[in-house]
Amino acid sequence: MAELVAGVGDIVVSRNVNDCLKTYALGSCVAVIIYAPAQKVAALAHVALPDSSLAGDRSSKKAGYFADTSIPEMVRLLKKLGIQNSRQVWVKLVGGANLLDSNRKFDIGKRNVLAIRKQLWKYRLGAIAEAVGGKMSRTVSVNVKDGRVEVFSPKTGKTDL
């Protein structure tokens, strides 16, 4: 099984049933997983910030870095693989924790989740499951073969989502 890892700001997509898409150490970042069960196509983005207007020079950032650029890019990549409408897919979200901002001054995790939901709604998509918020780091993987999503946290161990 090949493991395709999404770093911060990366989007990975696969239709190879032997692949596993994975991203590590989600704190305030959010993993967006889109899966097309009939076509066995999976996409995973590691989103760091809610809005690209927060960055002065967006040209140096990857498409998956911001909620407002990652979701349109994921949809574009999935369309290239034949996924044409929202009824063909499901979405799951993982991350969006509040690890270092005890006063909730910035609340980047929550803002990331809300911005991603807003972008998904533009494409008539909504998450069918979420493991978001809290005060824990998470690692997530999705198997292309069956869409099985596993979430790992040092606090809770491994769970299916």
Brief account:
By secondary structure, the chain is an alpha+beta fold.
What share of residues is helical?
A: 10-25%
Instruction: Provide the residue-averaged pLDDT.
Output: 91
Strand arrangement, largest sheet?
1-3-8-9-10
H and E order = EEEEEHEHEEEE
Question: What do you see in this structure?
Answer:
This protein is α+β, with helices and mostly antiparallel strands. The chain has one domain (2-160): 60s Ribosomal Protein L30, Chain: A (2-Layer Sandwich), CATH 3.30.1330.200. It is 18% helix and 35% strand. It has two helices and ten strands. The protein has helices at 67-80, 108-122, and strands spanning 2-5, 11-14, 19-26, 30-36, 41-47, 90-95, 127-132, 138-143, 149-153, 157-160. The strands form two sheets. A five-stranded mixed β-sheet has the order 1-3-8-9-10, with no helix packed on it. Strands 2-5-4-6-7 form a five-stranded mixed β-sheet, with helices on one face. Strand 4 and strand 5 (41-47) form a beta hairpin. Helix 1 (67-80) packs across helix 2 (108-122). The longest helix is centred in the last third of the chain and has 15 residues, at 108-122.
Short descriptors:
161 residues; alpha+beta; five-stranded mixed β-sheet
Reconstruct the topology from this structure:
Layout: E1 2-5, E2 11-14, E3 19-26, E4 30-36, E5 41-47, H1 67-80, E6 90-95, H2 108-122, E7 127-132, E8 138-143, E9 149-153, E10 157-160
Parallel strand pairs: 1-3, 6-7
Antiparallel strand pairs: 2-5, 3-8, 4-5, 4-6, 8-9, 9-10
Helix pairs in contact: 1-2
